[in-house]
TrEMBL record:
Residue ranges of every copy of the Histidine kinase/HSP90-like ATPase domain listed in the record: 442-541
Keywords noted in UniProt: Kinase, Transferase, Two-component regulatory system
Protein name: GAF domain-containing protein
Pfam families the UniProt entry points to: GAF, HATPase_c, HisKA_3
Taxonomic lineage of the native organism: Bacteria, Bacillati, Actinomycetota, Actinomycetes, Kitasatosporales
Gene3D superfamilies assigned to the protein according to its UniProt record, in alphabetical order: 1.20.5.1930, 3.30.450.40, Histidine kinase-like ATPase, C-terminal domain
Domain GAF residues, every copy: 180-329
InterPro entries linked: GAF, GAF-like_dom_sf, HATPase_C_sf, HATPase_dom, Sensor_HK_TwoCompSys, Sig_transdc_His_kin_sub3_dim/P
Length: 542
């Protein structure tokens, strides 16, 4: 494997060797010349110039250029010449960001792999270093830049290859220990996210038509709308990767002109800004697309793209065509069962919940004993039917959503998947000192049940316009809070809800789900003005 072609681009992967090596050098020379800003610009033979390192002390430090960020240099920039420049503007080619220097000096450097400039200057005020200092600076800068880059290439190349080997070893071990394609693909996502040090990783596989791909396995994806996307050939980043049959990168997804019919809104709501995608080829057929991404701007580079292509090629070796097809069939069937189960839950279960609620209200307001008994029978029947239906829905989907430990983001996504009431503004929050901790299946199931039940109750009965769901994870517990800004409950009604023999079906089912795992459920006035439903599950008991 040769990294010479893109040896300046390691910083966007796991290696920060070049940026770390050049940073102190830039700081020294900037300080020596009395400047407030220092940049190292690399100009490759093809493609835009790149920023390798920077050191800034003025107000532009609040929004610095990023390592490997592509640049636009102004006309007349002194490529290869030592020159003092007035009113220099260096623009990012990635976003609306510009470095403005009232005066600066560009010190050229060259080595065996390319050319560049060390730019130092001030945003305001004159910058007039002595000629002798400039000559000395040029000799010192060129020598030190060459030496730093040489060391950084060696260190960065070793680190990148070690990271890749570790990722491939992880996949090989998974392939050897399990013949199941789903397990292998899950290991591919974990290895990809670790290799590129990314926030999210996800995988799409083809549906029966072979043209539409749907997301299957995901890591740290939070919104149901994104998780349920269906991508056509040529659509978005994954569609482009399938069309080109190669890895592709998008530094700023929402503004990428190459992406056709891209799901920009869903991607923006998920928060993904920079991403890459690569096809998984089995017997020359695309059996999946692997993605990695970040919720912050990250200048993925040519090296990252090449690295992802090699990673995807090796990952494909662990998938046999028959196993991949069988896995795809099972996923499609599971997704259809889940869709049916969620539709039934949103329609029939909500209807039974409303029947039970109205029966309870009539029972407490009715003066006729016989009618009150009939209302009690109706409420009890609604509760029994709702419990049986939920059990059958769980059997229908095979508890697929809870077969493995979940992340907090996945639990919040499951809670948010219940149908939204008209005019309701929902927000979610994952917090606490251990937000990335895995949640065991029983706890995940209980938290999802409580969250969905509390949201449903709030949106049907409280008249709320806003509902906030927070999941806090620390070393001792998982704590879920659902807060609405609705009408709330008067003290008498709240006492009934909190009573051990509460007649309210939804609250009884939530309490049962929580206390079964040694937790506690409370209902109190919310910070938004309505109610707060709070469930706490101890981690030590799970």
């Amino acid at each position: 494997m040769s990294w010479t072609r893109s040896s300046y681009a390691w910083d966007a992967g796991r290696s920060t060797a070049i940026h770390d090596a050049l940073g102190p050098l830039v700081a020294d020379i900037r300080s020596l010349l009395g400047a407030g800003t220092g940049l190292v610009v690399y100009e490759p033979s093809s493609g835009p110039p790149l920023l390798l390192a920077s050191d800034v002390t003025d107000d532009s430090a609040d929004d610095p250029l990023l390592p490997n960020e592509p640049l636009r240099l102004p006309p007349g920039f002194p490529h290869g010449r030592l020159e003092v420049i007035s009113d220099l503007e260096i623009h990012s080619a990635l976003r609306d960001r510009v470095v403005k220097l009232g005066s600066a000096v560009a010190v050229p450097w060259r080595d065996a792999f390319g050319t560049g400039s060390l730019v130092v200057g001030n945003t305001a005020g004159a910058f007039t270093p002595e000629a002798a200092d400039l000559r000395s600076c040029r000799r010192d800068a060129v020598r030190r830049v060459r030496a730093a880059l040489r060391r950084a290439r060696q260190a960065g190349g070793t680190l990148v290859e070690n990271d890749l080997n570790q990722a491939l070893r992880h996949i090989a071990e998974s392939t050897a220990s399990s013949p199941d394609a789903g397990t292998v693909l899950a290991s591919v996502l974990v290895a990809a996210r670790n290799l590129f040090d990314c926030e999210v990783a996800y995988l799409s596989i083809p549906e029966y038509d072979g043209v539409t791909f749907a997301f299957d396995q995901v890591l740290n994806i939070q919104t149901p709308a994104f998780r349920h996307l269906r991508i056509k050939h040529g659509q978005g980043l994954g569609g482009l990767a399938r069309e080109l049959r190669s890895s592709v990168r998008s530094l700023d997804y929402a503004r990428d002109p190459r992406l056709r019919a891209a799901p920009v809104d869903e991607t923006a709501r998920e928060g993904i800004v920079s991403a890459m995608a690569a096809p998984l080829l089995v017997d020359d057929q695309i059996k999946g697309v692997v993605y990695v991404g970040n919720r912050r701007l990250k200048p993925f580079t040519e090296t990252d793209e090449t690295l992802l292509a090699e990673f995807a090629g090796y990952s494909s070796l662990g998938l046999k065509r028959r196993e991949a097809d069988e896995y795809r069939d099972s996923v499609i069937q599971r997704k259809e069962r889940e869709r049916l189960a969620h539709d039934l839950h949103d329609s029939v279960v909500r209807g039974l919940l409303r029947i039970g609620f109205e029966a309870e209200a009539a029972q407490h307001n009715c003066q006729d004993d016989a009618l009150r008994r009939r209302m009690a029978v109706i409420g009890s029947a609604a509760e029994e039917c709702m419990g049986m239906l939920r059990h059958h829905l769980s059997v229908l989907i095979g508890d697929a959503e809870y077969g493995q430990p979940s992340t907090g983001a996945e639990v919040l996504g499951q809670i948010a998947s219940v149908r939204r009431g008209p005019g309701i503004d929902r927000t979610t929050e994952l917090c606490g000192p251990c937000p990335d901790a895995l949640i065991p299946p029983p706890a995940a199931k209980a938290l999802v049940h409580v969250g969905q039940e509390a949201l449903t109750n709030a949106e049907i009965h409280s008249g709320c316009r806003r509902a906030h769901t927070a999941l806090e994870i620390d070393a001792e517990s998982f704590e879920l809070r659902v807060v609405d800004d609705g009408g709330g409950l008067d003290p008498t009604a709240l006492d009934q809800v909190l009573a051990p023999t509460s007649p309210h079906l939804g609250f009884r089912s939530m309490r049962t789900a929580v206390t079964r795992l040694g937790g506690r459920l409370t209902v109190e006035s919310g910070s938004l003005g309505g109610l707060q439903v709070r469930a706490v599950l101890p981690r030590g008991r799970l």
